[in-house]
Write the structure tokens for this entry.
Amino acid sequence: MNEHLVLTIALPLLGAFLLPIIMRSSLAMGVWIGPVILGYGCWILANLWLHGNEQPFSIAIGGFAPPLGINLYVDAMALLFAFATQLLGLIFWPFRLDQDTPKRQALMLLLVASSTGLALSGDLFNLYVFYELVAVSTFGLIAASSSSAAYVATIRYLILSGIGSVLTLFGIALIYAQTGTLNLAHLAQLAPDQLNNDLGLAAFLAILIGIGVKAELFPVNTWVPEVYATAASRLSAFLAGLVSKLSMLIILRLLLLIFHQPEATQVILILGILGVISGEFAAWRAKDMRRMLAFSSIGQLGVIFIAVALPDERGVLAVLALSLHHMLIKSGLFMLADHWGGSLERLRGIATTSPLAAGLFVLFALSLVGMPPLPGFWAKFTLITELAGQTDPLYMIGLLVFLLATVIEASYLFRVAAKMYQTKPTDIVRSNSPDSGSLSLTTASLFGAGLIAATVMVSPLGDGLQAIAVQAQDVDLYIQTVLQQPLGEGQ
Amino acid sequence: MIPGFTLELILYSTALGLVSIGLAGLVLSHHLFRIVLALVIAEAGANLMLVLAGYRWDAVAPILTTLGEQPQMVDPVPQAMVLTAIVIGVGIQALAVSILIRIRQRYHTLDRNEVAELMDAEIAATAGTARDVSQEAPLGERPIPPITDDAVQVRGGRS
Amino acid sequence: MRNLTGLLFAGGLGFMLLSIAINLDFGTPTMLIGGAIQSNALQKTGATNIVTSVVLGYRGIDTLGELSILFAAAASAGLILGRRHTTAGTQTAGGFVLRHGGSMLFPLLMTIGFYIIFHGHLSPGGGFQGGVILAAAFFLPLLARPGAQLHHGTLSLIEGLAGASFVLIGLIALQQGKAFLQPMLIQDTLGVLLSAGTLPLLYLAVGLKVGAELASLLSHLAQTESDA
Amino acid sequence: MTFTPLDELLLFSGATLLVALILGRGLAAGWMVTILYGGQLLTLIKMAALGYSDTIIHASISFEIMGQSLSWRFDALSWFFALITVASALLSSWFSCGEWERSFKQQGGNVWLYHSAMALNVFTMLILLASGDLLSLFIGWELVSWAGFLLMAMAGGVATRAAMRYITYAMAGGMAVFGGIALVYVAAGSLQYEAILTAVDQMSSTQLWMLVVMFGGGFGVKMGLLPFHLWQAPAYAETPGPGSAFLGAISSRMGLFAILLVLVKLFGIVNIDSLKIPFTLIDARDLLAWIAVFTIILPTFTAMKQNDARHLLAWHGIGQGGYMLLGVVVADAMGGAGGLLHVFNHATYQAALFMAVTAVIHRTGTSDLNKLGGLVVRMPLSFMVLLVGIIGLAGLPPMNGFVSKWLVYRSLLNEGMPLLFLAAVIGTLGTILSVYKLIHNIFLGQLRIEHEQVKEAPWSMMIPMLILAAIIFITGLFPGIPLAWVASVQEVIGLPATDYTLGGVESVSGSLDMIWVIGVLFAGFGIGAVIFYSAGRSKRVHQLDNYAGGHFLSADVRYQYSDNFYAGLMHLIGGWYRSSFLWLEKSVTSLVDFFSLVMQGLYRRANAEFYLLSTALFVIAWVVI
């Protein structure tokens, strides 16, 4: 059963390869392939989640025992994110039918497969490959909206991401040259002796900056506003909601397993703080909804980076809670942006025409600024109690910046909310196509319902996340799980 | 044989030099196609670095010739990785070039600044907002709305 | 001014990295996994070319990922450029030597390409290298006769099926109770063409796929450039 | 499962909210909700024992979330504030039933939203008051903030802008409190009150300073303490009529409640007193006292400048909050009692005043003090209520405001704080001057021609107003009734309890017996009346039976001085503090705006590669060097 987990990566790939061929012969059959594959993936993962024995396990691909071969490391955290990937892939599936459909859906399947790979893979270079696959399929999907601005946004993103991958590759080369292995567990074993030095740190920072491009790390996040403003909202939701979190997950894993240097966390903390400041301030002045969301997403990711920089398992808990919360909220908000589209000015008085959407916006905004008892509050509570407990004054700055950012966030979000509830609707004609409008509103309602469910279940959820965090933080467990048999003789 | 130190320095310098040249090109060029080329150069440097990581003195290519005693062979793993990395690079470059073609068709320029300006204008136009990059434009709406003058006139004082 | 600072930054970064990298042992890599792979690659995969056994065996999923990247790049390029099909009539056709030289080279290149693909597990070469030569074989006529078009339908059929067969071979292994992408049918005889079990099949898939992807990418670029 | 009285109260309140939400569009919604508020009041009365002792009633519900336990309970402090909350909600809601509701609906108001927002406010306030640990306190705090936002914003237009201002301030305050809670959690390892009480003794003065600043600032925003007071007056004033009576009566007192609970009860006045400000002679407690005093003076004189009755009252609400804090910070038996009693007293007369003004608006359609006048002949009962209210507000006998202010003054003198006393008295002078403006410009002088046909407010409005007037007088006559509650509140929060009698307080330094005071006062009135009625023959004159310079004045000629009231005084004091806080607020906003511009420029004009490169360089350089 466990072995079948690999299907969640293999089947979407297979589907992506075959989709254009099948679509050519039978469109009716073709449109179902993607959703069926992703649904099956969800089913596999959910099954594993429900019937698994909670113990992490490792799958050797190709039957080569790690560290020689590549393995998938499956613990609760990986499962959670893999499940989220497949589910969000299903939710944000590009249904729209036109001549580009086969390619778009194939790219989406590739995106989901590679994102799942990012969540599961236990090999550094394999992570890089999946990361690049995420990048390339993302480029294609952004450009698929085929406006000129989208092309420019894509090429700028591509260039930035290209430098990022050069740096990542460089970091991997450094690590390989130093240790002679790429397996994360093996590296974790060797790290205290071999990577706990300048070289290891330099390699980590190179990888951090490289992977940070997708995790919206300051300052390599300049692509964010333009891409989210030009790409299809469903794609933006997937990128902001999920892909950024997966990149964050990689950084977290590397930090937990391999790079324990305090300098590494300091860099992350500083960049996180700068990200919060820049993102939230920039969002304050934004005039259209997508860009506001893009900037606010930068700010939120900055907050998560601050959480990543926290050392112990409550830090991991904060990362998980904030990530999942942000995943839910940002996806929902982007769906609302899809529903309304365009400038904030057009939203004046919109509550009278679409009360549900306006209500959802208020709900999301409240949770985002952390109003108790919505889940956002608990995520933030975990973060700030943990921040306040640190001795390094830098963390205190982080705390203050975080609080300040929340005030700014509340002010710009509720400026929009207040605008929506103003009594006189303007006569500006809103230009949203009716079909995408209702679909995205339904999707947004789904996320709203999820948020409310999470509010009700916050206590068991908290316990569950706590267990996940403890497990994710256990380096020895990771090493033992992956390297069950003794290592093959090196030299 | 050249002493190890020198060769080492030369090889590393080459790899890092390629990366540096590429990065410098990325920053200095204004033409998007040249930027993509600079990216290619930088990638070559990183790939070279990867290969160097597995290089070994006095060793042969990792291909078995006899079943018995084997000569020293270089590390096969970086070679495999570099193969992968090169192909990835090719894919990305091809994609980049195809995007550039489209941009040139639409905007008739590939200057990075001009293109960025045009993109900004288009985003603003699509969203239906005025572009707010201008320093002269009035400030954004304040979260703490000022008491308007008419309200003051009607209601009299303020602190 | 910015040019100067840019140069300084780039140079500085290079220098810093150099000063770090220089501390590495050069020429005597630890080869932790590399050494282990060398010693048991033949039994596990049956390939003489250890790079091949790494590419298709130990790191098979990397290769799958990389094929997917090529596929994604080709599909994206198709999305971006494939909207308008233009006839490249404006370009001047190649001369006599070019056209006929191209036609003559075509079978030659095909042969070499497939040779390199099929001997990937034995000697230097393999699916990527062979695939590139195949792509060149198909692209050559395009250069010689700008009006000519590659049949995109066929190309995408090849790329789809080749990629799918790579995954399917992996899935068959899974079906038979082994791990995904685990090599099968291994006979560890050295240097024989049919020795490495499923690896040559995988390499064939890789080669066809790479060839098809590159050809389709190139033809997309070639066709669109004409109306730029 | 048995319900404790607290469960019943919360369930009742929740049920009120549900009824308002579900049936709020119906015809009799207002009456139903009012009756339910009455039910809540009855439940509170069932808990009346709390008002006279330091027992605690727990709620049956408690949660264990992410390692934090959340619980709710009521003690004398909560009960005292809850009583005021529910009573003012009951009377405001009663006031809004019937006629007001109908006219509100006619003007396009959303009655359903109004009732729901009101019920939500009461519900969240009760949750806040019942909080059993710091975390549930914060949850309640945020809920109250957002519920208040809803009530303030619902009128739209100017009100929305005022509410936005409010929520920005409230968010800032909330975040300060949030940060403070995190610090407390780290220091005490828990957010239970008991754990904090023990941890406070071990805290360094730096820690304590930070906590006092964060909590004091955070809670102070809600109270409208200087310099965070700018939001309050417009926000309260623009809330629909009865809503502003409710908010004015109790809403900002939630801040005082939290200050009492956290700063006074948990941290302890003694600890705060020990926090010296370096290079000055004052400590944190003096600082609080001076903040309180300036909160009395500046808003009160600002109130005097207002030309809108609701704004005038709302500004006073800020100022009166200063007396409460001042009394509590003085922290002896009398001061504490004065401060706490003032919460009760202020709620009564503030609600009465807002209601009277709303009644005037209901009949005349305006609250502009320059467009009213002479309404005493048309609305005599409203005039009476307003008169009672302003006497209370100004702190004169025989109304209840006198008692609490007397206690505060007395304690300031007793504790040897003459400067503070002087400042407080200046505040009272301002109050008297401005409430005179209020009653004069609305009710006295010449009736405007357009108000000839105005009738007295309907009974649905009059009855709650009269009830409030009665309470103001009765608790002025027998201050012992609320003082009993106040004394047990003092015990609960660890202040010395005052020694009260039915008519006032007993103390060695000077007692007060309102029964005697009022007796003497009325005896005086009686003598006056006897003289008036026995000695002279009085003749009733028509309001327009006036001459000026021998010229007969008709109704369309304005001869009465009401515009630009107190111009001379304003000229004298105006320049001193004009707009300085507005300037502060503006500069903060501009600063944020500027940063925002810079950051957008960063992303907009970005040469992203350059950033990336320099970042890479810097971090690598950090490693190498």
